[in-house]
Amino acid sequence: MKKVITPEYQSLIGQIGELLINGRNQAAKVVNTILVQTYWQIGRHIVEFEQGGKDKSEYGSELLDRISKDLTLSFGKGFSRSNLFQIRQFYIKFQKIQTLSGQLAINENLSHKLSWSHYIEILKAENELEIGFYSKQCEKENWSVRELKRQMKSMLFHRLALSKDKEGVLELSQKGVEVQKAEDIIKDPFVLEFLNIPQQSQYLESELEEKLIKNLQSFLLELGKGFAFIGRQYKISIGSRHFFVDLVFYHRILKCFVLIDLKRGEIDHQDIGQMNLYLNYFKKEENTEGDNEPIGIVLGAYKDHVLIEYATENISNQLFVSKYQLYLPEKEKLEAELNKILEINNEE
Asked: Helix 166-175 crosses helix 128-141 at what angle (to 10 degrees)?
């Protein structure tokens, strides 16, 4: 006789399943935290042994090779020379510690949200400012390892830092992005390499928009934390005329609409005037109680800085003009520009 599955029984199975999933997730987090802290401790012991003096000359540069062989014999895989080098670097880059009563000394900067795989990627950064930024930002935005790789490859830290002074760069590396005003969500350039459009390819604005929608998850990652997608070709009716905003988002942190207009080529003063019209409309017709003034971003492949300066002068709305790139920025060029900012501030 076939047993009847009642709604109550299905509910029971669902509740048990939810408990099991939550339990496994919690267990994985605990295991990850212990693993990260253990690797940090191993790195500390290696570095302190190296700095000890007497045995340093005996082992020299072959120390990691010797440790690798002995640990592999005793504990199996996972202790190759390259892994031990990463563990050693992990301690060196995250050396500040906080001693907890009755527990191991752990690094106060280590996050239980970041896996060992996250830290391996972060350690590829070339200076402490980048390492600090990606550690904080990765934790804030809950990036997967894949997302972290993409943000580092797109030189996110450098793109954000170039709009700041030395103090701003240091704060960025210590706290990550603190979204408190409209300027905090602007990047120049925005990098859209995930669209896979060749640099010299001919394409229409509608095609660019279509590709952004198809890759919305990647586009939201590039935009940053707090964006919620509202719609595309958002219709605005003024009298008998109709206008269409390419992309409309809502920013839950700033509590405002964000309008994006896409331009395939160079941004013109008429594009800025049109965005200003959109912003005025949204303020009067779309905003509801609790909404702040909308933000407008005109996003194009090129911009004339002098023309943009004249076109945006005396505009009271939060209107920004930024470039997009269909390819990854040049690392050396961004590093050189950032170093200039830091050097100039040092001279002052």
From this structure: 50
Query: For the chain, what is the domain count?
Result: 3
Residues 197 and 315 in one domain: yes
Residues 81 and 48 in one domain: yes
Same domain, 21 and 47: yes
Q: Is 288 helix (H, G, I), strand (E, B) or coil?
A: coil
10 Å CB burial of residue 324 (0-12, 13-18, 19+) is buried
**CA torsion angle for 63, 66, 70, 75 (degrees, to 10)?**
60
C-alpha 59: how far from chain center = 41
Look at residue 2 and tell me if it is in a domain: no
Beta strands 295-302; 97-98: pairing state: unpaired
Q: Please enumerate in sequence order all residues whose Cβ is within 8 A of that of 142, keeping only pairs 6 or more positions apart, or say none.
A: 113
Q: Are residues 194 and 291 in the same domain?
A: yes
- Three-class SS state of 257: strand
CATH number at residue 238: 3.40.1350.10
Domain shared by 260 and 168, yes or no: no
Q: Do residues 95 and 106 touch, judged by C-beta distance below 8 A?
A: no
Q: Which of 311, 319, 336 is CA-nearest to residue 260?
A: 319
Q: Which of 112, 130, 159 is the last residue of a domain?
A: 112
The domain in which residue 45 lies consists of 7-112
pLDDT tens track, the chain, 348 positions: 566 678 888 888 888 888 888 888 778 778 888 888 899 999 999 988 888 754 454 455 688 899 999 999 988 888 899 999 999 999 988 876 433 333 344 555 566 678 899 999 999 998 889 999 999 999 888 899 999 999 999 999 999 998 888 888 889 988 888 899 999 999 989 999 999 988 767 888 999 999 999 999 999 999 998 999 999 999 999 989 999 999 999 999 999 999 999 998 899 999 999 999 999 999 999 999 999 999 999 999 988 889 999 999 989 999 999 999 999 988 888 888 888 888 765 554
Residues 103 and 157 reside in one and the same domain: no
Would residue 1 count as lying in a domain?
A: no
